[in-house]
Amino acid sequence: MEALRVFIAKGQFVPGDRIPPERDLILQLDMSRSTLRKALDALEREGTIWRHVGKGTFIASERTEAPFDNVAALAQQLTPVRMMRARLCVEAAIAREAAVNASREAIELIRAAKVGAERAVTWAEYEACDDRFHKAIAEATDNLLLAALFEQLNEVRRAVGWVKLVRQTECPQPSHSSFMEHARILEAIEGHDPNAAYEAMRRHIGSVSARLFSEF
After folding, report:
1. Owning domain of residue 122
2. Rg from Cα positions in the chain
3. CB–CB of 169/120 below 8 Å?
4. Phi, psi (5° rounding) for residue 66?
5. Do 113 and 195 lie in a common domain?
6. Which member of 17, 61, 67, 97 lies 3.0 to 4.6 Å from 13 by CB, making a disulfide possible if both were Cys?
7. How far apart are the first and last CA of the chain?
8. Which of 95, 74, 210 is CA-nearest to residue 153?
9. Do 130 and 182 share a domain, yes or no?
10. pTM of the prediction?
11. Residuewise pLDDT in 10s, the chain (216 residues)
């Protein structure tokens, strides 16, 4: 991380600038691909950079002290129900835009995350793949602002206090409703059907919410 920070500072990169691709950074910084990716992941989490599939890695805008930038403070003011309502509004619109703009590469990333979730042998593995599924859809919009908005929404979602779910099984069963819901979302995006993608995502988020909150 420190090597990357020094590289960015010496290169006089400013917000919005794209930094060199991984293959160049590996040579310039003399580090392995796995080490570089861990450092990039860490800098992305702290908000120094942001990444977009097919576009590259960019320097993020400087953070302000606005309330929305303080994830912990915002999360404390949100209930899980309101968090899910925000997802219902935002992610449905993102799915619609993904159906309009998704490239073949972007669709394959969505498909890979979907398959990974179906093959998960633990709930933690499933949740990681589910997270990649939704992130891949945001990136498929080919809209940097929407992708950044999703990342902010997802960061707040992780910070909101959730009641720990009691799982009845060690991993999702084949009948898990999200599998079919994911398939419908992917089908709509792959078919470039924005209305179907919007509705499929709304039904999916609504289904997840219904399982969590009877009042939703």
Report:
1. 70-212
2. 18
3. no
4. -60, 150
5. yes
6. 17
7. 42
8. 74
9. yes
10. 0.67
11. 888 888 988 888 888 888 999 999 999 999 999 899 888 888 887 778 887 767 788 888 765 444 445 666 676 677 788 888 999 999 999 999 999 999 999 999 999 999 999 999 998 899 899 999 999 999 999 998 899 889 888 888 877 755 455 566 777 888 888 999 999 999 999 999 999 999 999 999 999 888 776 533
Q: Is residue 140 part of a domain?
A: yes
SS3 string of the chain?
CHHHHHHHHHCCCCCCCEECCHHHHHHHHCCCHHHHHHHHHHHHHCCCEEEECCCEEEECCCCCCCHHHCHHHHHHCCCHHHHHHHHHHHHHHHHHHHHHHCCHHHHHHHHHHHHHHHCCCCHHHHHHHHHHHHHHHHHHCCCHHHHHHHHHHHHHHHHCCCCCCCCCCCCCCCCCHHHHHHHHHHHHHHCCCHHHHHHHHHHHHHHHHHHHCCCC
